[in-house]
Amino acid sequence: MLLVNFGWTAKAASPPATEFVSLYSSWKMYAETGDCGGYTLTLIQGRKRQIMRGYLQAYAGNCEDAQTPIENIQLRGKHATLSFTAPVYAQDGKGGLQIFANWKFSGTISKNRVKGKMEYCSIDMQSCNSSTSIVLPAVTHGTL
């Protein structure tokens, strides 16, 4: 009997990559009106803590605003500067949604907070007509 070994061995399947979730929020409800204000930022990071994706909720009256995926995520340097954009959707009159404007954030991130400037910009990002300084305290950190 001839036994031939071609030099390969079966490898065990790799465990799924762990994702880390960080939630930062300045959400609050105003007792006098029942309206809500503030922002909630959810960041999902990979094993090496690179930001893979995220979601922004901007509250302006409605307490149940939907999460909007953030785009153009940039995380740089030892001071952890963070920037991203997020589309603002509106009804298109045909039962669907269209991008109406964009949120644009630039600032810093730490384990305890996200701090910076949030701007409300035109669809083409050519003009931003309002800017707000925000501080989003960390609410929770965990794994998926």
What does the model show?
- This protein is mostly beta strands and 144 residues long.
- Helix content is 0%, strand content 60%.
- The chain is built from no helices and 10 strands.
- It has strands at residues 20-25, 28-29, 36-45, 51-61, 68-69, 71-76, 81-91, 97-109, 113-121, 128-143.
- Strands 1, 2, 3, 4, 5, 6, 7, 8, 9 and 10 form a 10-stranded antiparallel sheet that branches.
- The protein is globular.
- The N and C termini lie far apart (51 Å).
- The model is unreliable at 1-12 (pLDDT under 50).
Sheet-strand content, in percent, reads over 45%
Mean pLDDT: 82
The profile of the biggest β sheet is: 10 strands, antiparallel
Q: Which runs of at least 5 residues are low in confidence (pLDDT < 50)?
A: 1-12
SSE topology sketch:
Elements: E1 20-25, E2 28-29, E3 36-45, E4 51-61, E5 68-69, E6 71-76, E7 81-91, E8 97-109, E9 113-121, E10 128-143
Antiparallel strand pairs: 1-3, 1-10, 2-3, 3-4, 4-5, 6-7, 7-8, 8-9, 9-10
